[in-house]
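Q: Hi! First time asking for a complex rather than a single chain. Here are the components, and I think there are two in total. Is that enough to go on?
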Amino acid sequence: MNSLARIEIPVAEPVSDTTERPLRFITCGSVDDGKSTLIGRLLWDTKAVKQDQAESLQSGSTPAQNSLGLLDFALLLDGLQAEREQGITIDVAYRYFSSGRRSFIVADTPGHEQYTRNMATGASTADVAVILVDAQYGVLKQTRRHLAIAALMGIRHLILAVNKIDLTGYDRSGFETIAAAFAVMARGHGVDDVVAIPVSALRGENIVQRADKTMPWYQGQTLVEALEAAPAMTQAQAAFRFPVQRVVRPHEGIRGYQGTLAGGSVALGDEIAVLPSGLTARVSQIITFDGRRAAANAGDAVTLTLDRQIDIARGDMLAAPTQPPLRGQSFQARLIVLNDDGLDPGKHYWLKSSGRRQRVKVNPESVLDLAGGDWQPATQLTVNQIAVAELRFGETAIFDRYVDNRVTGAFILIHPDTNDTIAGGMITGFPAGTAAASPDDSSERVVISLPARLADRLIAHEAFSSFREHARISRLAEGDATGPQRDIDLSA
Amino acid sequence: MANSIGRSAGLNPHLRALENESIHIFREVAAEFEKPVLLYSVGKDSAVLLHLARKAFFPGPVPFPLLHINTGWKFSQMIAFRDLMVREYEVELIEYANPRGKAEGISPFSHGSARYTDIMKTEALRQALDQGGYDASIGGARRDEEASRSKERIYSFRTPDHRWDPRNQRPELWSIYNGLIHSGESVRVFPLSNWTEIDIWRYIRAENIPIVPLYFAAERPVVTRDGMLILAEDQRLPLLPGERPQLEKIRFRTLGCFPLTGAIRSDAATLDDIILELETATLSERQGRAIDRDQSGSMEKKKREGYF
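A: Yes, that's all I need. Here is the structure of the assembled complex.
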């Protein structure tokens, strides 16, 4: 096998940003809104559907034509036999198409009673949500639900597709009323970035092709143009985070930490803190199969080595020492309940996040009334509910707030008996009424100079760890360690 | 050995993102499962899968073996290529063939494609997984390949008898994968879930990944059966009365068992040609696969029974 000892790894070119990665979006709408027709139309007009696939539909038992004598686009999406038999779609399906300028992954979720669970699943990885309304009926209760879930899952860019506009005689003022009402609702959820588009999925108007003839009054983007222009979500601006997935020791002298940057960037020589221990070290190598790199960015899967031997295991997190993640034994989170049996308060579950798996107790506080938008006190959690709950760990847990980092702020809960994934969660912060571990109010500080080994043991101690953000640490060369005052100067 | 170090600096952000996601999945499997195995079918998707595994674990070795289910009816070029790769990359290969194949003389000609596939692929895979006691098997299936695969999870849960229940799959949120299973259960893992056919080809080109030469167009002897162009350069193909192989310029879009895999007429002799051909293709990739067309919903049925 390749080994670093035998092969000189050349330095690779810096890797460009990830803004052109495939854009992931979710479509939200009920059966009647024409959602399947819309996705089918996107696939058809971008030629993602091939001739033999279309022919296999036409040989099916159901007449594969709609009222315009076109292919029934909804049939393109019926992936499973069970669905075809029952005429319903189950769960989340992923479709792939490209406009030539950009590639897209669409999470197609069904519109029945498991909607919350499925939509949350699809939305968890989405950059954009396309929310459908029927132009004849405008914003409905369910539109409010879709918006609430999209906003909850951290989606900050919405496209409102006002469908079946042909059935209103291409009514401009009707479209504008719906768009305005929706924009107000979206702002209520903290989302300002909304593009509203009048479309007819059935006729293919303003989906891929413009509809200048029927809607000369609409000069805005088609659906595909809006998707092409939408920003992909990135954690590039977040603080440096590197959850350690795996430790690799290909031979003596190399200890590589393998993982994917969950936030920010890292360069050779950067000081990093290892959590939960709080020990610090500098990055000595950034290794990839394609060569050593000088830096790595959010999303990059790399192997890091450090300049000092530290005990690091899977589940530990390397982070920017000046912008550490939250650490504590209790957190507040929002949950989406995914399993039919709900969640029992007081029971221990597994929580998995960024390679860490820990036991946790969940205490529900309130649940969201999706239709009304109010939070109601709750002690029990049932499937498809969105809840606020307190998480209690028996040991230190490490998170970011979900609004600060969509990777390190997210987790799933696993039932210890069935091993089912029973909830998805997003960290909102520490529980109300408790602050982060804070030092006493005194501004008095003490400077101690210690041998490095002793300092490391002190830093690794839990008592120190919970005050880590308030401590300054500088490492001095042997000759410099004459007086602690230098230390203060260095870190001022 | 053919070392590709320093070559993929120019990978575009689209392919880079797909690569990063796949590497994350590979590392997660290696960290969480006791006995993973990589299902290596020698085709282009397997080539990409193996390449990604090497990248994921570098500078360490690929920490699990490759498993090849040999039906005995693979293209001979595939077997030669497979053995070359195993030598080049110093990976461990486990080959498994269902003993019923020899004992009962099972072939696609004598037993029909459906029964043959069931025994020599699906049953063989179940046997091999049971014998090896693997708790995770990594495969190269993609969601864009076939309708029933569009709903497949990246971690696809299987019962102790390897069944897939499309109604009882674990929700998969963010990139957090639930790898907890009970003894005897297993997970099939699909690191290429979000790749499309053209992504595979563009990646092969960008990374200069070796593939079986049958993917490139050349003049080869073929016969036409049931509308499919079948390669006729193998002694194992019994010719029907009146059948005479014709030389045609052909290539394969997918590779499986040679009697069941149809070629396409093509002049695409390079990766650039193939990519250009795909960009303007009007037929889907699995159009040449007889086993997909046995009956409507065919792949879903096979998947439920434990086929990949």
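A: DSSP finds eight helices and ten strands in chain B. Let me know if you'd like any chain examined more closely.
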